[in-house]
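agent: user wants the structure for Trypsin-like peptidase domain-containing protein from Paludibaculum fermentans. delegating to structure tool.
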Amino acid sequence: MRTAALLLASTTLLLAGPPIEDMKKQTVLIIMMAKTPKGVMTATGSGVLADATHVVTNHHVCCEVPPQFPSKVVIATGPEKTIDATVIWKSEEKDLAILELAQPIQAPKVVFATKAKIRIGEPVWAVGFPGSAMRLGNQNAIYESTVTQGVASRIFQGPTEEGGVEYVQTTAAVNPGNSGGPLFDDCGQVIAINRAKALSSIGGKTVTFAEGINLSIIVDEVVSELNKNHIQFTIGNACQAPGAVSSIPSWMLGSQAITLLVALGAIGLAMNKKVRQTVARSVHLGGGDRKAPPAPGPRPPGGKPVLVGSIGPYQGQRIPLSEKPVVIGRDAAVVNLVLPDNTPGVSKKHCQLSVDRGGRFFVEDLFSSHGTFRNGQKIEAGRPLEIRPGDRITLGSPQVGFEVNLD
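agent: tool returned. relaying tokens verbatim.
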């Protein structure tokens, strides 16, 4: 067994700018596939190399598949090129995981910078594979990471019931698919793991992305686990690269704003069909892609589709519905409509509701522990069910309920 090596960089870092190409090489595309009753489902996320054969990522990127479904995690390095990955440590509470690779990846050595080295107001860089960007360009563009810049706004501790994880809040743009990817300082050191971005519901009327509020888990939360697993890693000094900004932008939120968090893990629709089939073959799950239903016609004239809270924490709230599902549950890392952690009968990721272009409403139970009910009848998990305006949807118990309707 190797002895853990914690290597301390002894030189002061003085760079004219971050080593962008090195940062991109240190960031990997993670693909998780699972065989479910609906077919092979694919999800993507990002990760950062701790060394040549170990990757740090989010728990929700690699480890959210119910145990009854066969699944596999791979690192995609190019067209029809994947490396098998095994989860050797995971923490749902911290939303972190460590993967071990079947083959090494050659990349510049990663240097981590802990909380004490982070300077508020310093430039930061988020690198990853956001799903929206992966839809652009040709097939090879899928394997090209995206780089965005912002500043470190503050460091704070999350709720005790979520493990008290410490976050750095930044303005570096992140989107679904960035989950698990690295946040670098201006010297190219990894200071945090990207996890979530904020949503706001203003007065219960709209749900929109809040600008410049993105959360990343500081690396202090994972370096101890790297050490326990005998993985060599390097801790660097505080970044002293020139160009750090001296002020932090302020962000005004209305007094009636309800702040939510949306996880950054992208669902497999981010990849085109050919790539999904290639990955499906490589992970030996079979089944191929689930065929999409015929596209419905234009939405009939009428009001705007909304989800209305009928009982519970969102009673009276009206939340717009679209083809992008509203996912309901207790874990802000994996849902975009968050219920209090002590809500009875509600799972961390419980159910989702949506409306198609033809104006049809759907509800789907996401394999919750206590079920989802339509008008008092439990629905089948994992299978979208068409519902009608006025139908009562309850989660686990009669204490949390919603209806769909038209405004």
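agent: one observation worth passing along. The first strand starts at residue 6 and ends at 8.
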